[in-house]
């Protein structure tokens, strides 16, 4: 079987050789040619027994031709739409009878040859319209010139064609099992487990098969190339026609190129009108990566999809892919809705009282604050003891605050008569989170949380280091508070990562050994520019590393720890 594209110049080849007997497929030559993908793309020649990719402009038909030289030849033509529903029609054309190898050898003009092929509609063998993978198959086809015409009426689109005269021996597509359905075997809030029966192509015939799972929120896909086209508009899935043949400036931009005006100045008026029509098309924007996923999992036929959203419907498709031919077959897809997130008990906050909150890794907690009396503002204190947490506050359903909090933060929220506040705390991905939360409507007065400066770091003075002492400084506030300093010897290998992992910001001085206490003192300054204090810590050993902590103690003995500081004494003095 000899193939050629709807570029009518190639019809000359078919008509010019009709007087000769066309040979059947040379398998050695075929295997050499099929490895050269550029040959088929650049020349638009469709090989017997291989899948090719094509591209259609909307409302612009494309025709492919091939010759079956002997009667009673098996024939299979499979067309796979990738982006949009396609219309395609297969017809058998009558070949001119006066073509002979004994002729003059001078071909007729090209336009006249086109008319000979296209003037006769031929015998219609098969028609189809839709986005299913559809095939025409015949165990005994007559000899003649076959024409395959394809058109996309919705939008520019990709497609794949596979055709062969040896369908029994080729079998490039993986075979589906007797039950081709994908089953949901387990369902959770963020996970779905899928299972399917293996394809006989891999389990019985021993061909190299792997499975790819596609997950999205819109619909099931009928082919892998349809899913891939949805995922990306890059050249992997969009095989473009040759520049200069039927490209427009818009099409260049669509494939990532920005053409200049000079690239098209020689086009005819007719071509320019066609370009104008094509430039008016509207393309659907590229979907976000998170909207659709493709995961290839090897030859396993059970797979658990993770990191899904609760109470959300997802569509799942499984494709068996022959890794030798890179051709695929779709199982019957399924869909499922993940379970709802477990309804959590909302914790009620009391005005002016500290509440301890524990959140599981990647979990969340809801707090409600309902002031009894009218109020002008709400002061919210959040003390994240370990990793940072996300804080969201809604007042009567309206979002008024969304912040990530590390350490201690104080927020001032505008009040409203009879307003209710819903606070959502979302934990860290690294591990569980512990917090202390306080909400108060009391203007002024003593608060259990001590006042803190914006910068809670401890500064060490390198030039003042000795073999037995270090000098440090930290910022204070205008409020008179008690500050306690603690030290703890650590090994030489102790680093910043150890410090972050071990420290609990909410653990107070009561958790420390008495031997680690250095001193406690009161300090404040009416001038914030001068609200800084220094302290020299003595009695240390030469060449040793120490972890220093400063606790500020507020009313009700509630304390907050500054950021720990790692220092080292001089080894030689």
From TrEMBL:
Keyword Signal: yes
Domain of life where this protein originates: Eukaryota
GO annotation, cellular component aspect: extracellular region
rRNA-binding keyword on record: no
Annotated stretches, region: Disordered: 97-118
Pfam families: NDNF (PF10179), NDNF_C (PF19433), NDNF_N (PF24354)
GO molecular function annotation: heparin binding
Signal sequence bounds: 1-19
Domain Fibronectin type-III: 174-328, 450-559
Keywords per UniProt: Glycoprotein, Neurogenesis, Repeat, Secreted, Signal
Function recorded in the entry: Secretory protein that plays a role in various cellular processes. Acts as a chemorepellent acting on gonadotropin-releasing hormone (GnRH) expressing neurons regulating their migration to the hypothalamus. Also promotes neuron migration, growth and survival as well as neurite outgrowth and is involved in the development of the olfactory system. May also act through the regulation of growth factors activity and downstream signaling. Also regulates extracellular matrix assembly and cell adhesiveness.
The protein, known as: Protein NDNF
Primary gene name: LOC107710242
């Amino acid at each position: 079987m000899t193939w050629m594209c709807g570029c009518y110049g190639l019809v000359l080849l078919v008509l010019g050789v009709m007087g000769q007997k066309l040979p059947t497929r040379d398998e050695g030559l075929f295997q050499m040619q099929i490895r050269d993908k550029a040959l088929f793309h650049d020349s638009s020649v469709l090989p017997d027994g291989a899948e090719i990719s094509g591209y259609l402009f909307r409302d612009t038909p494309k025709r492919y031709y091939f010759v079956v030289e002997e009667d009673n030849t098996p024939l299979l033509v499979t067309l796979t739409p990738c982006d949009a529903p396609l219309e395609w029609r297969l017809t058998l054309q009558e070949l001119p009878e006066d073509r002979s190898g004994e002729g003059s050898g001078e071909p007729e003009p090209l336009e006249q040859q086109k008319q000979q092929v296209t003037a006769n509609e031929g015998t219609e063998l098969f028609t189809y319209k839709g986005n299913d993978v559809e095939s025409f198959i015949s165990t005994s086809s007559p000899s003649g010139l076959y024409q395959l015409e394809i058109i996309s009426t919705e939008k520019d689109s990709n497609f794949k064609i596979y055709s062969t005269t040896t369908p029994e021996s080729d079998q490039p597509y993986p075979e589906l099992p007797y039950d081709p359905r994908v089953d949901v075997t387990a369902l959770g809030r963020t996970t779905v487990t899928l299972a399917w029966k293996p394809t006989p192509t891999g389990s019985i015939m021993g061909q190299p098969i792997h499975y790819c799972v596609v997950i999205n929120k819109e619909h099931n896909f009928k082919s892998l190339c349809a899913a891939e086209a949805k995922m990306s508009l890059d050249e992997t899935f969009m095989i473009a026609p040759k520049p200069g043949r039927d490209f427009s400036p818009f099409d260049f931009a669509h494939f990532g190129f920005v053409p200049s005006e000079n690239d098209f100045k020689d086009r005819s008026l007719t071509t320019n009108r066609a370009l104008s029509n094509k430039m008016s098309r509207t393309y659907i924007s590229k979907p976000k990566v998170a909207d659709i996923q493709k995961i290839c999992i090897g030859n396993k036929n059970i797979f658990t999809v993770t990191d899904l959203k609760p109470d959300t419907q997802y569509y799942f498709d499984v494709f068996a892919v022959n890794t030798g031919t890179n051709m695929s077959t779709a199982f019957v897809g399924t869909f499922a809705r993940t379970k709802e997130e477990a309804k959590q008990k909302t914790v009620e906050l009391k005005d002016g009282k500290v509440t301890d909150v524990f959140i599981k890794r990647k979990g969340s907690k809801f707090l409600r604050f309902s002031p009894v009396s009218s109020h002008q503002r709400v002061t919210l204190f959040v003390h994240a003891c370990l990793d940072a947490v996300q804080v969201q506050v809604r007042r009567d359903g309206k979002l008024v605050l969304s912040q990530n909090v590390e350490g201690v933060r104080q927020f001032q929220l505008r009040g409203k008569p009879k307003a209710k506040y819903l606070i959502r705390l979302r934990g860290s991905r690294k591990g569980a989170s512990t917090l202390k939360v306080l909400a108060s409507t009391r203007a002024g007065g003593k608060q259990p949380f001590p006042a803190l400066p914006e910068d809670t770091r401890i500064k060490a003075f390198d030039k003042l280091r000795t073999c037995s002492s270090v000098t440090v400084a930290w910022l204070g506030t205008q409020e008179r508070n008690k500050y306690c300093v603690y030290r703890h010897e650590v090994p030489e290998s102790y680093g910043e990562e150890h410090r972050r992992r071990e420290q609990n910001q909410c653990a107070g001085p009561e958790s420390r050994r008495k031997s680690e206490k250095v001193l406690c003192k009161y300090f404040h300054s009416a001038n914030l520019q001068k609200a800084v204090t220094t302290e020299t810590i003595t009695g240390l050993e030469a060449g040793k590393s120490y972890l220093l902590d400063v606790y500020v103690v507020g009313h009700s003995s509630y304390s907050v720890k500054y950021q720990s500081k790692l220092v080292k004494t001089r080894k030689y003095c």
